Amino acid sequence: MPTSEHVAAELAVEPADVRAAYERLLAAGVIEARVDGNLCIASLGRETNVGDATQIRFEAALLRAVREAAARGLSSTEATGMFKAAMVRLEAMERPKKPQE
To answer: Has this prediction a pTM greater than 0.70?
Structure first.
């Protein structure tokens, strides 16, 4: 797998964010460290959890959105704030409405 610095430069995000994502993927068993220290996709033969793939796709989409925001002049913090605000709006829309009294 590419280094966190390479991915960070490609996606215009902080290397620490990519390292954190790699750590989560390592902890989940999606990727593994080889003897030489490089990262690779975990060995085949283990049962793949559909949730793992969904989370990976979601994180990739979020990183693309942050990259696009950076290209438009927003910082990672501003892009993350926009994402959080969108999640709050989504949660509010999904809450059941109380009947009017």
So the answer is: no
Burial of 25 by CB count in 10 Å (0-12 exposed, 13-18 middle, 19+ buried)? buried
Token readout for 9 is 């430069």
- C-alpha distances in Å from residue 76, one per residue of 15, 37, 58, 93: 12, 28, 17, 26
Q: What is the mean pLDDT of residues 80-85?
A: 79
Sign of CA dihedral 46, 4, 16, 36: positive
The structure tokens listed for 83 are 């994402």
Give the tokens for residue 5: 């610095």
Hey, what amino acid is at 39? L
Looking at this protein, which amino acid is placed at residue 5?
Answer: E
